[in-house]
Amino acid sequence: MTSRNSFLRALVIVAVVVLGLIAGPTAAVAAFTDSERATPQFSAAVIPAPATANVSMKCTLGLHTVVTVNSYGPVANANYYEVKIYDRFGSLEFTGDPSQAAGRTYSSGIEIIGTWSYEIRGLYKVPGSNNFWTGKPLKGTMTC
Amino acid sequence: MAISLKTTSGKILASVALVGTAAAVAGMGTYGAFTSSTSASQAVTAGTVTIALGAPGPANTLNVPVAGLLPGDKVEKLVTLANTGNSDLNNVTLTTSAGATASLLTTDVTNGLQLTIENCSVAWTGATAPYNCTGTRSTVLASGPVIAANKALSNLASLTSAKTDNLKVTTAFPTTANNDFQGATSTIAFAFTGTQRTETTK
After folding, report:
1. Mean pLDDT of B103-108
2. Helix-strand-coil split of chain B, %, nearest 5
3. Do B191 and A37 touch (CB under 8 A)?
């Protein structure tokens, strides 16, 4: 009985395989294709820090100072520059555009001056937009 | 569960299997009969589906890397797409991917790079961008995020065998891309795929 069942099972399997081979080719679908590739690289700009800057500090009795940005190196991709001056506590005293006369000199009030710091950076202001990119700063310190 | 020939279902199943097998084998079988035959032969050659981008140079600047992109910039690249096979095509699709080099340029669908492709009936003119079309200009791919899969390209002459398209691939960097995009870099694979025309009866 067991051998007869095995034979029957095998017979069914063979039948299914044969029928599958007959029907299989009609189910296949293929199409000729061809592909071509290109792989360009895209990189966004970086706005680096100015390479150099000359900033002077003149003090009066250690209680008043005038800070002047005399020069700064050009920054690639920047269309605007910014100087920030911080007092001895790190508080922002002044922000200016060093390309303008009014923006490159700062005269403090009466206060204990000590060691101040500055940052000069380039920016890219997107034309026709409020969007801007900020460059890395060149930092320095000044002491009376 | 074992299948038994003693049961009705077993017998039916066995019968179906035997009939199916016999039918399948019968078609392949041989039988004796008086026959006569004649023959005729005809060469049958499959068509070829081949597309080609222009050789690097004036006909293909697509691979030239682009550096120093700022918000609002547009990059125009020229490339010819030719159907160099002997079959017409049903369509040409473009799939772009950045793979492991993905960056904000490719993942930010709004502020990242936007891709447009235009076709000109004659070669684009101009030594440098912006290039001009003195013939008929048409849109092949409307503006959209630079990364996309299986985008069907429109208005291609190269769907016809032996025809060539003059494509201008423009990649725009939106003015809204913020400071986070600084220094972002991606290598974008442009894969053009041509697929054979729909089948016909000959």
Report:
1. 98
2. 15, 35, 50
3. yes
